[in-house]
Amino acid sequence: MLYYLSQQILDWSAGTAWAESVSSLRLFGYITFRSAGAAITALLLSWMLGPRVICWLKRLKFGQDYRDKAEEAGNLTARLLSKKGTPTMGGILIILALNFTTLLWAKWETMVQLTLLSVVVLTALGFYDDYAKITQQSGAGTRASVKLLVQTALALFIGFYLWNMPSKSKLITEIMVPFYKYPVLTGAAVAGLTLTTLTIVGSSNAVNLTDGLDGLAIGCTVIVSLVFVILTYLAGNVKTAAYLQIPYVPGAGELTVFCSALVGAGLGFLWFNCHPAQMFMGDTGSLAIGGALGIVAVLIHQPLVLMIAGGIFVLEAGSVLIQTGYYRYTRRRFGTGRRVFLMAPIHHHFEKKGWYESQVVMRFYILCVLFAVLALSTLKIR
């Protein structure tokens, strides 16, 4: 919005006496300026709305009145505070700040519109799941099959949409891998659609699984988003993309504004979500921001780089798959299920080993930064 308003003013003032006085509005033409503005705006908006959202959630009694899975398992000797009663659905704060800020600072190009639309769909899915958990006595929420169906349908829609756009079809038909500058597959629509679906659905659910400790999911999301601030900017600049020999994607630069807004909104939410958390994002936030990261990775033709940058999310999701698979295998084989980890996702494993919640979160942050550096190294090691 601000970009279009500034350009309109510059056009009106061209050739007039006050053209010089509004010349500073040319700054809105720079992605770097608008990205910085988006990050700051989202942060301030989150700080301003945070206390109001917490009060609103408490008034509506949208709190976690059920014990979380870690507490139900027991034996968490390092956990000092119960999370029962803390307001959930706080992801509304992230999404409000993210969407409003992006619309305010970004150009309304197809990539931005597609990303924001997907975020809204996943937010609605997460909100429905959170509401079901609150209203159902069992706290089970929406069936996993229903969530997976909606996520898959959304991912396939994005994949087919890009495939049928002449200017974006290579995002689907060509497969890029980290540390290699040429496509490893061309004309591979089926493989591309599969990879797109796995990236979006996997990222959405991985962030959701990571959201189990105060500040863990949103802190890691901020770190990964910073990586994609850099990657989207480089992918959208024809000169830097050519120099670094990475895929150039016209219009990807505007996703830099979106990722910057996600950084600002994430930091603002972390202010209220750090230990001891005043509110949780719930599926309302985790499904949406996880899906958003997956969509951005697809749109800049770097879906597999997300697996590196989001290494923590991969570890969290992988621990659940390993634990579940091994338990079912051993139950069939030996009659009694066995476990690889003390508890999954893996952050609860370390809790049960006696780590304090804040220790787990901070150490996972450190690992996330290392994964982020490794992801950025793919820009030069090709």
Provide keyphrases for this structure.
single chain; 382 residues; mainly alpha; 16 helices; 67% helix; globular
Describe the structure.
The structure is a single chain. The chain is an all-alpha fold and 382 residues long. The protein has one domain. Helices cover 67% and strands 0% of the residues. It contains 16 helices and no strands. The protein has helices at 2-13, 31-59, 69-73, 91-105, 110-135, 144-163, 170-173, 189-210, 216-235, 238-244, 254-273, 282-299, 303-309, 311-334, 346-352, 357-377. The protein is globular and about 80 Å long. It starts with a helix and ends in a 5-residue tail after the last helix. The mean pLDDT is 90.
Q: Would you spell out the secondary-structure blueprint of this structure?
A:
Blueprint lengths: L1 H12 L17 H29 L9 H5 L17 H15 L4 H26 L8 H20 L6 H4 L15 H22 L5 H20 L2 H7 L9 H20 L8 H18 L3 H7 L1 H24 L11 H7 L4 H21 L5
Helix pairs in contact: 2-4, 2-11, 4-5, 4-11, 4-12, 5-6, 5-12, 6-8, 8-12, 8-14, 9-11, 9-12, 9-16, 12-13, 13-14, 13-16
